[in-house]
Specification:
Helix content: 25-40%
Number of helices: 17
Number of strands: 31
Structural class: alpha/beta
Bound molecules: FE2/S2 (inorganic) cluster
Distance between the termini: 81 Å
Amino acid sequence: MTKDPLVVFTPSGKRGRFSPGTPVLTAARQLGVDLDSVCGGRGICSKCQITPSYGDFPKHGVQVSKDALSDWNKVEARYHEKRGLKQGRRLGCQATVQGDVVIDVPPESQVHKQVVRKAATVRDITMDPATRLYYVEVQEPDMHVPNGDLERLQTALAEQWDIGEIRVGLPVLSKVQPALRKGKWAVTVALHRGHDDSHERLLDIWPGYFEGRLYGLAIDLGSTTIAAHLVDLRNGQVIESAGIMNPQIRFGEDLMSRVSYVMMNPGGDVEMTAVVREAINELVGEIARDAGIDPCQIMEAVFVCNPVMHHLLLGIDPVELGQAPFALATSDAMSLQAVELGLAAINRSARVYILPCIAGHVGADAAAVALSEEPYNSKDLALIVDVGTNAEILLGNTERVLACSSPTGPAFEGAQISSGQRAAPGAIEHVEIDPETKEPRFQVVGSDLWSDQDGFDAATRATGITGICGSGIIEVIAEMRMAGLMDPAGLIGSAAQTGTERSVADGRTHAYVLHDGSGSGSDGPVITVTQADVRAIQLAKSALYAGARLLMDEMGVDKVDRVVLAGAFGAHISAKHAMVLGMIPDVPLDKVSSAGNAAGTGARIALCSVKARLQIAEIVKKITKVETAIEPRFQEHFIAATAIPHATETFPNLMQVVDLPDVSFNTGGADGGGGRRRRRRG
Ligand code: FES
């Protein structure tokens, strides 16, 4: 008896025998091979493309002849004529098995495709979106069988896609009848099934086969900035990104001042909820416009935020978060209708998912950082700091993960800094200061040239030199310390003490002139680093360091194996400068890496994968939260950390690569000739 043909799928390696004439899609489904289909094998969607391989495959034990699959049929020929099929490709629902064959399923035909999450660390996410499209053919109504159009749609989904109960909201219910009739009883539906759903929800319906795409938003709602990424829900690609300032700043720059505002002003929470929702709507409108897409195709939004932002987004009074024991209204992940949050700019039936909070002050943003950086999978002891107005800090490895949140204030984001600005073209982002001449050179966002290189003026003419962004302020202050312009206490020396006219008097203190754009007839800004700027950074970095140190105490360690710097500008922070400032504990410089916006990445992962949503719900339960606000050692660590780099800690790894002049510019230390100084190394 001859055996049925053997079908081997790659890359999965799944194999089975099928009788001649079986469509490849059917074989794939029976074997559980991940081969996409929106139209259910009707030759409409083209999502089922496969590539057969011919020849000898000793590895699989098969020889594939040229006639292993059926010839092209009319559907494939028509599709090829209209859209073009790539060389060697077939439609899996049309090609049938005729002989032994090896079939490759290309990544774009896999539902659960792997998407490279971050080029730098080459980690993958597997697509498992909550919202998907299904094409379905529905029975026409029959007077003798008196059921509704929706019920027949449900029956068709059950028969053709094995989909059980679906729930339908009023906005989309009103679209069902016109769509069915316009599509001649064939429609495409968008169905959503979230992490905690026992059923699918009908989010939208289109007549016939819907050619468009579905999108989602990953939104990092920070105290100072709101960043959003528009993501294609088929492949996880970021189509567009945009950010705006959080308008709640006018009620208070940091979280506690916003909570105080609510305490002092009844109804203040309602006001803050309204302005942040309005800003999000504006941002979403802008991002859809820039991407050139219909906002109705945005079906989901995922939010990550700290607990205070979380409550204010949801319209919950945050006062409980302002006092011990810092009780959250809820710490679980949430799945909501977008309209409940006033998100009017996207599909009317769109869903919102909010990551779980870890505890009191440790929010969904820290959970998102954990999802992105996976400290629980790290063999090394990893310290992950997500730098923002509130720093989220995680310390851990495969055995244990600790988390805290530290109130750094907005200085690292350029706020509270006299010449601070966001990282836009024209903002100074990298700085070097010559330790001998004390002359600076710098780079601005938008140009690769240094300010002392030919062509710099021409390259920056359009943008001008407008201010200093977050990474620039870290670098310039660290460079000032390395060049002996500032002492370990953070005091900027006078011109006489430092030997440079760039140190100018500024009231009773001094400032360093980084760039003077006011000369030679131009009226550009004078960009200085003032004593108040240094103080703001000192406070911010001390809070960051003290938080990290507290976690290290809790873990019972004095050093960590590696440090990951994350945050909206985490990708741009220089490891050396961060360590000179004493933002992070001492480690070899090559053990400091940048993760970019890890909270935003975590939001994107949750947007692309229901499995990841289930996973983070489990992970947050295992993370131990450390509350900085009530921990007396936090104050001790904070005070010691105000010195640059630190009053008591030594930085042996750092000292191998930098010199930190031992200068002192307090009143007793001024010697009129550059301060007391000696070079220190090691
Ligand atoms: S499954 Fe839609 S074209 Fe093949």
